[in-house]
Automatic annotation (TrEMBL), chains A, B:
<dbReference type="GO" id="GO:0006950">
    <property type="term" value="P:response to stress"/>
</dbReference>
<dbReference type="InterPro" id="IPR036390">
    <property type="entry name" value="WH_DNA-bd_sf"/>
</dbReference>
<feature type="domain" description="HTH marR-type">
    <location>
        <begin position="21"/>
        <end position="153"/>
    </location>
</feature>
<dbReference type="InterPro" id="IPR000835">
    <property type="entry name" value="HTH_MarR-typ"/>
</dbReference>
<protein>
    <submittedName>
        <fullName>Transcriptional regulator SlyA</fullName>
    </submittedName>
</protein>
<dbReference type="GO" id="GO:0003700">
    <property type="term" value="F:DNA-binding transcription factor activity"/>
</dbReference>
<dbReference type="InterPro" id="IPR036388">
    <property type="entry name" value="WH-like_DNA-bd_sf"/>
</dbReference>
<dbReference type="InterPro" id="IPR039422">
    <property type="entry name" value="MarR/SlyA-like"/>
</dbReference>
<dbReference type="Pfam" id="PF12802">
    <property type="entry name" value="MarR_2"/>
</dbReference>
Length: 161, 161
DNA sequence: TATTGTTATACTCTATAACTATA
DNA sequence: TATAGTTATAGAGTATAACAATA
C-alpha cells in the first residue's frame, strides 16, 4: 500500500485543508462564520440582529444623523438603511425625528428604551466576546482587533499603486 | 459650545463608530467584506469564485474524496456541494469519477487542467494577500492567520461550560 | 438638477426538505 | 433502514434602479 490514503472510504474527519489554511482570507471566512453565528445567537434574545445592533450603536454615538449618514457609517446602501431603521423604529428603539428647515431628511435618535436596551446588550456582547476569545491573551485580543480594524477600513488596496 | 457635534448637517465622513470598533466581531465583519471583495476580484479572471477556489484546493489535497466529505471540509451542506462540483466539472477542472464497488458516491479528482489552473491561481492569490497585508510584519501576518484559524475551527464555544 | 428617503426587484449564498438510487 | 447525491424551494442579506418629495 502507498502512503496515499483511500479518501473515498475514510472517515469524514480525515479530509485535510492544509493548503487553504495558509491563506488569511480562508481563515477569516471560517472565523467570521463562527463569530457571526455566535453573535446572532447572543443578540436574538434582545430582538436584535447584527445589523440592527450595529445601527443602534451608530445612532447612539451620533445623535441626529441622517439615514444616508448611517448607511455611510455601516457601509451599506440607503435602501438597506430603510429596512434597518424601520425595524428599530418598530421596536421603539430609535425615532425618525423631523428636522426644522429640511423636510427631506430625518434626524435619527435613540429612544430612552433604545438607550436602556443598549446598555444591557453591550454588556452581554462584551461577555460573549470575552468567552469567544478566552484562549487569547489581552495583548493578542487587542492585536487581532487592531489588525482587523486596519483591514476593515475604507480602502481595499485593490489595484491602486 | 459643547463638544457634541451637530451630526445632521455634518459631512458624511464625520460619523464615528468608536463603540462598534471595540468589538472584534464588527471589525471582523468589515474586514471580511473588504478581503472577500478583493479575493473575488482576484479570482474572477480565472473563472473562479471563493467557494469554487476553495473546493478545488480541497479536492487537490484529498484526491478521490466524496462530495459529502468535500462538504464537511468546506463546512457546507451536501446540496451546496452539488452546485460547486457542477461548476468545477463544467469547467473541466475536476471530474466525478465512478468508484468500483460503490455506485452511490463519486471519487472527486482534479483534472490536469485543474492542476495547471491551480498553480497559477494560487500564486496570484498569494501575491494578492501579500499586498493586502503589506502593512503587517511577517510575524503579525502569521499571528493573524493563526488566531483566525483558531476561531474558524469546528467549535463555536456557544454555551458549553 | 441634485439629494433623501422609499419601493420594487433581482441576485448571491446557503439551508431545509423531499426525492432517487443505491447500500 | 441508512447513505450519497440530487432537486426544488425558501430565506437572509444586499445591491441596483426607478420614483416622489424636497432642496
Amino acid at each position: 500500500m502507498s502512503a496515499r490514503k483511500a479518501a473515498s472510504d475514510a472517515a469524514p474527519g480525515t479530509i485535510s485543508d492544509t493548503v487553504l489554511r495558509q491563506f488569511v482570507g480562508y481563515n477569516m471566512k471560517r472565523a467570521y462564520i463562527n463569530v457571526s453565528a455566535d453573535m446572532s445567537a447572543t443578540l436574538e434574545p434582545f430582538g436584535l440582529k447584527i445589523m440592527t445592533f450595529s445601527a443602534l450603536a451608530i445612532v447612539l454615538e451620533n445623535p441626529d444623523l441622517t439615514q444616508t449618514q448611517l448607511g455611510g457609517a455601516l457601509g451599506i446602501e440607503r435602501s438597506g438603511v430603510v429596512v434597518l431603521v424601520d425595524e428599530l423604529e418598530e421596536a421603539d428603539l430609535i425615532a425618525r425625528n423631523r428636522v426644522a428647515g429640511n423636510r427631506r431628511s430625518y434626524a435619527l435618535r435613540a429612544t430612552v428604551k433604545g438607550q436602556a436596551l443598549w446598555k444591557k446588550v453591550e454588556a452581554r456582547v462584551r461577555l460573549h466576546e470575552a468567552r469567544l476569545l478566552a484562549n487569547l491573551t489581552d495583548d493578542d485580543k487587542e492585536s487581532l482587533r487592531a489588525m482587523l480594524h486596519g483591514l476593515g477600513s475604507t480602502e481595499g488596496s485593490s489595484d491602486e499603486k
